[in-house]
Structure formats: C-alpha cells, structure tokens
Amino acid sequence: MGFAVPFLGGGMRQRQFAGLVGGATASGPRIAQAGQRPASAAGVPAHDDEQEFPLIIANMPATRRQMASAGGVAVLLIVIAAVIAPFARIQLGQIDGFVPVLQTALGLAELITAALLFAQFAIQPQRALLALASGYVFSGSFAILQTLAFPNGYAPAGVIGDGLNSPAWLYVLWHTTFPAAILVYGFTKDHFKATRPGRPAVAAIAITIGCIAAAIAGLTWIVTAQAENIPAFYVSNIRHQTPLGNQVNLMLLLWDLTALAVLFVRMRTILDLWLMVTLLAYLPNFLVAIIGSSVRFTVGWYAARGFVLIGSSMLLTVLLIETMLLYSRLASVIALQRRERANRLLSIDAVTGAIAHELRSPLGAISLNAATGLGQLQAASPELEDIEDILCDIEADSNRAAQIISSIREMTIKTAHAGASTDVEGVADLALRLLKHDLLANGVSVAAEFQGNIPPVALDGTELQQIVLNLGKNAIDAMSSVPIDRRKLTMKTRVNGGSTVHLWVEDSGTGICPHHQESIFDPFFTTKQDGMGLGLAISSNLVARCGGRLRLVKSDASGSIFELELPIFAPASAQ
Fold first, then answer.
1. Could you identify which of 420, 471, 480, 487 might form a hypothetical disulfide with 444, taking C-beta atoms 3.0 to 4.6 angstroms apart as the criterion?
2. If you average pLDDT over residues 189-202, what whole number do you get?
3. What dihedral angle (degrees, nearest 10) is formed by the CA atoms of 252, 257, 259, 265?
4. How far apart are the first and last CA of the chain?
5. Nearest residue to 535 via CA among 483, 480, 478, 492
6. What would the pLDDT profile of 434-470 be if each residue is shown by its tens digit?
7. From its phi and psi, is residue 419 left (phi > 0), alpha (psi between -120 and 50) or beta?
8. pLDDT 10s digits, 156-168
9. pLDDT for 7 beyond 50
10. What is the pLDDT of residues 243-269, one digit of tens each?
C-alpha cells in the first residue's frame, strides 16, 4: 500500500495514496476504487503509508525484523522435519488421549484466530479478511469434528461417523477448505469493495458464519452418515491405508503449495508473511505421509500433528503480539495528546490571568467614574461640566480596555504562529491519510493532482490541516446520497503568479442549494442535521487572517468545488 509518483505532462504529477488513488495515463488520472492497491511507477519504489499508523494489523507492512523472525521459524521447521523424516516409519504405541487433547487445542486456537480476524474486519471491512477468517472457522471446526470422529478419542468407535473413513475425510475437508480460503484472500486482498463498518460489517459477519455453518453441516453429514457411499481410505484396519491415501496427500500437498506460491508472489503485509509460515508448517504433515509413512501412530504421524498445531497457533501468536505493540503505540499517542492538552490549558490560564490583571485597572476606573457620575446626577444641582469629564474618562478607560484585549490577542497569535510556514501538498497528503478510514468506509475514490515543488505558504501547519480535513469531511458527507461508483474526491494544487498557492477540493456530491451558497461561511449556519455550522466559518477566518481566501467556486448537481487561496511565505529577512 504505497504511493507512486508518475510524472504527467505539463509539469504536473499525480500521487497515489495507500489504497485510495489509482495510476495515471496519458489522458489524465485514473481513479481506483477505495482500497485498491496501486502499482508503483517504473523506477519509483512504493512506500507503505500504513506504516505510519495502520488502522488494523492486517494492513501493517512486513518489516525486516518480521521477515527475519519468520525466516528463522521457517528454517527451524525445515530442520526439524528433516531430522524426523528418517524415523517416520517407526511404529509407536497408540496414545488414545493424544488426538483429543491436541486437536481440541488446535481447533480452539483457530477459532480464536478467526474471532480476531472478524474483529479486524469489523474495524476496517475488507472482504479478503472475511474470506481468511472463514478459512480459520472451517479449519477449526473440521479439526474438532475429526476429533469427535476419531476412534478411541472420545469414544471407542468415535462419537460420529464410521470410525474408519470418516476421520480421514474430515481431515481432507480440513486441509482443503483452509488453503482455498487463503487463495481467495491472496487474490482479493489488494482489490476489494469496502463494506461500511458498524452494523453492515456485523451483518456480513453473521451471514458469513451462517453460510459456513450450513456448509460444514452438509459436508459433515456426507462423510459421516454417507461414509459407505464415498471412496474408502481404510478397508478393515486403520494401520493399513489404501493407495487413495497417498494420492490424496499428494493433491493436498500441491494444493497447499499453490496457496503458498500465491502468497509469496503477492506478499506485502505481516499477515501475508505469517500465513506463508503457517502453510509451510503444514507441509510436513503431507510430506511425512507421502514419503515416510501413511500409517497412524508412527513417529511421522505424531510429528505431523505437532507441525499442524504449530502452524495453527502461529498466526494467533503474531496477532496477539502485534495487537499489544499497536496498543502500546496508541497509548503513547494518547499520552502525548493529553500532555498537549494540559499545555494548552496552562496557556489558557496564563492568557486569562494576563487579561484579568491588565483589565482590573481600567474596569476599576470605569466603575469609580460611573459611581461618581450617578452621584452628580442625584445631586440637587449637578455639575454638567464634571459629568462631561466623567463620561470622557469612562470612554477613555473603555477604549484602553479594548486595546489591552487586542494587544493580548495579537501577542498570543504572534507567539503561536509568528513566521509559520507550511507545505500545502504535505498537509493535503497527510489529511488524505487521516481521512483514509472514512474514505474506505464510504467507498470514495480519490484523485490527488499535485503540481509539485510548491513553495511553502504563510499559514500554520496545524491550522491548514484542520481546514483541509474539514473540507474533506464535508465532501464525504456531501456524497453520502450518491451511488458508490460515482463517489470521487479530487484535490489539486497550483502556484499562481509566484505570489499565491491554490488548493482545490472537489466532490461529486449533490451540490449546495443556490439560496444557501451565500450563507455557508456564516457562523452557526449548517445544512446538516447534526452540524454546528462552525467548520467553514472558522476555516474562512483562519485563512483570512494570513491574507488568504476560502471560497466556493462551483456547486451544482454534479458536485462542489472549494478553492483555498494562500499567500506564499516570505521570510522575515526578505520582508
């Protein structure tokens, strides 16, 4: 999920934002659906915007540390499998409690992993995550069902099935559905249509679980109640397998390798990396059966189950670790925000203290003069000249109080923003990343056409970011009633005459009513049911304070365009 910077004609360039913006063609920008992964331009490496602060672990890019850890685990698994392979045919005693304990733990681990993946889907709905979570539900369910069907597990002939071939077929279903789900995930993870978070995502999860339960019930009924009507793996003894066993193990091996190859080619995130390690851990399960032994209760048979347990617990462990790391980062951010809020409160206390101290003198003089004037008016023969002097003193003191307030306000503004300069394109880039979740959730595609090499403007970066965020959120809200395939947010930049920088924010919404267009910058005017009517008013005042202008260029049934005009920053020495 990176951005490429293909250069367009006329000195313009278009940036691709993490999963939001498509590439560029000779005829202009190409818009991608929200969530689609853009391709990098030739010679320009892609960078992961998600790395700054991903919404979900499934979108975190695989770091070198993660790759080294996964490589070490993979090498260790290969070495252990190579050491066990020569002894795979050695027959060991039958441990009746081995399969129930191991596969119950394995099934629970995979169901917990599925729950975590469903939670990731609820936060940022991606259908690839839904497919992967479904695979873990299939895998965990068939693992537990095979335990119930396994002879001498929970019952001498198994709780369900014929006790001979049903466990083998449940094993085949187990290791067929899981790689199939990973294949669906691998092919769809970079091209998906986002679902809205909240109730729509929960509804999608509920429907998916219902369909999975129906499929599992139907397949289980076939391999248990109808076991005599399907090909047999064992004829009369569980220690002697038919040739079908090796053939099926070979097909399962190729199926697992296919899923592994797809992930290897399309590997990008931590989730992709550790799914590859999981599939690699499953390989000895088939290799030992094909090369070493197809008989139960041998060294190879016991070892293969151990590899499956490791593979099933792999992603769960990684998800828990990365969740804790992400939580620690979030806690650090919250701590910094609280510290910044405390500093702002201290600044407010200092300003209010200064106002109280400076205004006490003129307000006291006004009060004293007002009392004296009242006394003169209540006298039998008031001195009009004295009353005139008193009123003049009151006017002078009130003007002095107004000057004090203005000077304190100017002092705080200069302290906070004196000499402030900002890169417009950098702020717009950051604003799009901050809005990414809202854009994905609302199915909005984004085009960002930035001129590049634009000089900084004379406005504080935080203020400009709030202005752009406000315009972006208003654009998203304006497109809520438009069909998803028509929702498009466009940002453009341009330098005009070497003195001003222009930023346009364009949406494809329904537009603003003509009789409302003159009032949208007025305080407390809003067309939203839950709006306060302050966003555009504050933004307009912030822009005007630095000598710029915020205006509505166009608004009709095809959408609205807001233009932000800002003066180029001039250093104090140049001024």
1. 487
2. 68
3. -170
4. 43
5. 478
6. 788 778 878 899 999 988 888 999 888 888 888 898 8
7. left
8. 878 888 877 888 8
9. no
10. 787 788 889 989 999 999 999 998 888
How far is the CA of 223 from the CAs of 157, 178, 206, 217, 313, in angstroms? 15, 18, 26, 10, 27
Q: Quickly count: other Cβ atoms within 10 Å of residue 308's Cβ.
A: 23
Does residue 178 have a pLDDT over 90?
yes
Torsion of CA 56, 61, 66, 70, to 10 degrees: 90
Mean pLDDT of 465-486: 88
- What integer pLDDT is reported at residue 130 of this predicted model? 92
Tell me: pLDDT of 19 over 50.
Answer: no
Torsion of CA 211, 129, 32, 48, to 10 degrees: 180
488 vs 561: CA distance, rounded Å:
12
Q: Tokens at residue 30, please?
A: 């190409």
Q: What is the 3-state secondary structure (H, E, C) of 312-342?
A: HHHHHHHHHHHHHHHHHHHHHHHHHHHHHHH
> How many whole angstroms separate alpha carbon 480 and alpha carbon 490?
16
Residue 521 and residue 550: Cα distance in Å, rounded?
Answer: 9
Residue type, 137: V
Quick one: residue 268, left, alpha or beta (phi over 0 = left, psi -120 to 50 = alpha)?
alpha
Q: Which two tokens stand for residue 515?
A: 């009789």
DSSP character for 485? G
Picking from 127-141, 183-197, 447-461, 496-510, which range would have the lowest pLDDT averaged per residue? 183-197
Contacts of 481 (CB under 8 A, 6+ apart): 509, 510
Laid out side by side, the sheet with 488-496 consists of 13-15, 445-450, 488-496, 500-507, 559-567, 549-556
Give the H or E element holding residue 172: helix 166-188
Enumerate the H helices of 226-298 as residue ranges.
243-265, 270-287
- Is there a contact between 272 and 62 (Cβ–Cβ < 8 Å)? yes
Which token pair is 124? 């940022």
Reported as a single tens digit per residue, the pLDDT across 71-106 is 999 899 888 888 887 787 787 877 878 888 888 889
Which residues, in sequence order, are CB contacts of 413 under 8 Å at separation 6+?
A: 545
Q: Whole-angstrom Cα distance, residue 331 to residue 339?
A: 12
pLDDT band at 488 (very low <50, low <70, confident <90, very high): very high
Sequential DSSP letters for 36-71: PPPPPPTT-----GGGTS-SSGGGPBPPHHHHHHHH
The amino acid at residue 247 is: Q
Burial class (CB in 10 A: 0-12, 13-18, 19+), 5: middle
Alpha helices per DSSP H over 383-534: 384-417, 424-434, 436-441, 461-478
493, 425 contact by CB (below 8 A): yes
